[in-house]
Amino acid sequence: MPISDYIRTIRGKIGTDLLLSPGVAGVVINDKGEVLLQRRSDNGEWSLPGGALDPGEEPADAVAREIFEETGVEVVPERLVGVYSGPDHHFFYPNGDEVIIVSMVFACRPIKGEPRVNDEESLEVRYFPLDALPPLDERHRMRIRHTLMNQERAFFRRVQPGPGADSGNGTGAGAH
């Protein structure tokens, strides 16, 4: 996966040390109720389309840009589904770079374009019926489930309740 000039500059200063990286992903569901997925060129796995924010970029603009760059589909982000991070978002890339991603996931509506491999980040791009998804990491399945719940409030996970927290689960719209 190509990295931005911004990340390249930071990596030039910190080497492969841990970097906290804001990212976005989109759950794009078409009129047939199918979800848009991409098979990534870096690991061959199916995933939701998405990527890193550029400095100063609005997250909703970033998810629309990333989805178009990777799939050729233009979308309108309609709502924030959730914000995801933690130990299951801690990665080591083959070149040794260490990163923890904070991923903002949006429910998106496609408005134009047919799915296609649109850059070097995808091997395959297509819509899948929800009952016939390809092998998919649980993180992506969870995001799809959260999107389909159509909650007004975004999902987030609180591991430790803060001072004065009520006896509820402290997770915005539900436990994860």
Describe the structure.
It is a single chain. The chain has helices at residues 5-14, 59-71, 138-148, and strands at 19-28, 34-40, 46-47, 50-52, 74-84, 90-92, 98-112, 122-129. The protein starts with a helix and ends in a 28-residue tail after the last helix. The chain has 3 helices and 8 strands, in the order αββββαββββα. It has one domain: Nucleoside Triphosphate Pyrophosphohydrolase (Alpha-Beta Complex), CATH 3.90.79. With 176 residues, it is α+β, with helices and mostly antiparallel strands. 25% of the residues are buried. Mean pLDDT is 90; it is low at 166-176. It is globular, with a radius of gyration of 17 Å. Strands 1, 4, 5, 6 and 7 form a 5-stranded mixed beta sheet that branches. A 3-stranded antiparallel beta sheet has the order 3-2-8, with no helix packed on it.
Give a brief description.
The chain is of the alpha+beta class and 176 residues long. The protein has helices at residues 5-14, 59-71, 138-148; strands at 19-28, 34-40, 46-47, 50-52, 74-84, 90-92, 98-112, 122-129.
Top keywords for this entry?
5-stranded mixed sheet; 19% helix; Nucleoside Triphosphate Pyrophosphohydrolase; 3-stranded antiparallel sheet; single chain; 176 residues; alpha+beta
Q: Architecture in CATH?
A: Alpha-Beta Complex
Q: pLDDT average, as an integer?
A: 90
Amino-to-carboxy terminus distance: 29 Å
Q: What letter string, H or E per element, gives the SSE order?
A: HEEEEHEEEEH
- Poorly predicted regions are 166-176
Instruction: Please name the CATH topology.
Output: Nucleoside Triphosphate Pyrophosphohydrolase
Given this structure, which CATH class is correct?
A: Alpha Beta
Count of runs of 4 or more consecutive helical residues? 3
Q: What structural class is derived from the secondary structure elements?
A: alpha+beta
The CATH superfamily bears the name: Nucleoside Triphosphate Pyrophosphohydrolase
Helix content: 10-25%
Return the domain count: 1
What sort of overall outline do the alpha carbons produce when their principal axes are compared?
globular
Number of strands: 8
Largest sheet: 5 strands, mixed
Radius of gyration: 17 Å
Strand percentage: 25-35%
